[in-house]
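Project channel, design review

CF: Before we commit to the Streptomyces dangxiongensis constructs, I'd like one complete example in the thread so the newer folks can see what an input/output pair looks like. Taking Lactate utilization protein.
RD: sounds good, go ahead.
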Amino acid sequence: MSGTFVGMPAFPEAAHRAVRDPVLRANLRHATHTIRAKRATAVGELSDWVELREAGRRIKDHTLRHLDRYLLRLEESVTAAGGTVHWAADAAEANRIVTRLVKETGESEVVKVKSMATQEIGLNEALEAEGIRAYETDLAELIVQLGRDRPSHILVPAIHRNRGEIRDVFVREMGAWGRPAPAGLTDTPAELAEAARLHLREKFLRAKVGVSGANFMVAETGTLVVVESEGNGRMCLTLPETLISVVGIEKVVPTWRDLEVFLQTLPRSSTAERMNPYTSMWTGTTDGDGPRTFHLVLLDNGRTDTLADRVGRQALACIRCSACLNVCPVYERAGGHAYGSVYPGPIGAILSPQLRGTADEIDASLPFASSLCGACYEVCPVAIDIPEVLVHLRERVVEGGPAVRQGNRVVLKPARGHAAERAAMRAARWAFARPGTLRTGQRLAARTRRLHPRTLPGPGRAWSGTRDLPAVPAEPFRDWWQRTRGGKDGAE
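CF: and here is what came back for Lactate utilization protein:
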């Protein structure tokens, strides 16, 4: 993945700083509460939402289990339609392919549709290093780019900015990137949008190369799909002479009919709309209509390794709706930058550590960036059990290594360190396997409860320093059951 976030602190430290920023918290609270309230209304309009959600889950699960077959079918379909398919094992290879393709056109600038895959690989930085300037055309991405900032949300990358901050960025930076902001620009949404439209229009009309991602790829026909709300995507996908799309291999769906499900669930879950204002689809090239040359770069970059993990692979079903971010109490308070990845929030907490591995301090901390409340699972339109994957990844971090293949099985690589955690788990396993010992320990804990400390010693101090230790009841449950029900102790 990209080095965009290298140098950032691990989640606990970054989140600690973020929660002390009152402006950031106010911006996030207002935006997330507004979006999720609208989403709830839009979803409530459909009587078959539960069935649509289950259908989406099954389509994604089936596709991931047969991904090799559908990717080969996709390649055949795109090639037959006049496109060229390139396979990129990692970010470096993808950047080399795109850079080479742009250079072959003789151009030194490209216009871009909002694409998390290109952010993941750091494409803008790679192009700039080769003398090629990439212009973001999505309004929120434009704000992030002009402000020399980082995206903090999947759907609304500039969600951490308020209108006054955006106005200041436009006035200060637009002139260095092209047409300057209009004189006397205010912070009203209409004026800000008009300033962006005027700034981008000249780029759309001038650019010869467009770069995009895709929300879906249809293996059956070789069709790519981009859904968006502003029309910038339609401009980037139709006006340039050359179109280069960088797409993660997990974005494929088997048939055209499968889109029926996702084109209902995605807009309602993301923008709370019944349908996307702009749904652009293209299949290869067509004489006299759209780009003359089309390249599809299929990106792996850790996805195959993630696919090998039967629990963790759920993350690859994500359709990037951002619903999980808008209901997450941790994201609402910490913001997207604290996650140190282009994929923030609950989905980022399970996707980034799998794509990048858990050796880095940032990625090792992400599975713990959750209260496990389950709100993310409840709103996910493809029913990704994010809490289950978080617990699974926490185990991997504690054990100390990534999942590795041994024959036909995927196991956790043994690790050094974390001796205290392993010792505690072994002790618990020993006690739970001996009912008599467990019963005696429970009774002893109940009788000595007045002597128990309010904080834990040693390494446990960090945990109990911000939490109250649970009170030990006056008698164990076993004794209560036997006394009140007259039943036999289940331990005997």
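RD: helpful, thanks. Residues 408-412 have pLDDT under 50 and may be disordered.
CF: Residues 325 and 345 are 5 Å apart (CA to CA).
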